[in-house]
Amino acid sequence: MENLLPEEPSAQPVIQISAEEASQIQSAFMRQVYGWMAAALALTGGVALLVSGTPEIVELVVGNRLVFFALLLLEMFVVGYISARAFDMESGTVTRAFLAYSVLNGITLSIIFLVFTADSIASTFFVSAATFGVMSLYGYFTRTNLARWGNILMMGVVGLIIASVVNLFWLNSLLYTITSFVGVVLFVALTAYDTQKMKALAFVGIHDDETDRKAAVLGALTLYLDFVNLFLFLLRIFGRRR
């Protein structure tokens, strides 16, 4: 039979770096990730405050369920598109899409300022930040391979989404409480899991600044989602309603 493979496979470049260089690359990459994540959170918070203080926009967004759910669907589309196509787009486009998502999320999250007191939002935010920080540090420095958590956490998130959607119609207070605590546990674990994944992502664009920027923004989006969801579930537990 004729051999359709080349006689000698073309040599693939092998990049050899020391452990110290690898650590420096990961540290620099994670600084980018946390920088973009912090910028997006600040943008989301600023937009949410602005919208909540503008009665006309509140009436348009909160007073019209069709508009509110359309914005939520648009957010889901943008996140899905960025996650699936990040490395096929230019880094500037990925960045703008991420920031646009942050603005959209700020618009929909403005509702929390109408439901909960400012003090409880602020205190819950700091609790969320502390919890996120501890778990992200754990994910970054632990020698335990957290990859085996992946399938379990994803199944948990799917189940949580289904239960939350069902409870939108059922309005069961017990299920609301259960999903709130389960949500906190899931996103605490996801924070550590995703942080460890980001360490591996640091080498994707090791010799390509464009790819490195895309990977950093994608990592920022992932951790941004973990933080926001952790904050919202903690707010459901500890937030004081107006």
From TrEMBL:
One of its GO terms (cellular component) is plasma membrane. It is found in: Membrane. It comes from the Bacteria. The keyword Signal does not apply. Pfam families: Bax1-I. It is a multi-pass membrane protein. InterPro entries: Bax_inhibitor_1-related. The chain crosses the membrane at residues 33-54, 66-86, 98-116, 122-140, 152-170, 176-194, 215-238. Keywords: Membrane, Transmembrane, Transmembrane helix. The keyword ATP-binding does not apply. Belongs to the BI1 family. This is Bax inhibitor-1/YccA family protein. It comes from Hymenobacter rigui.
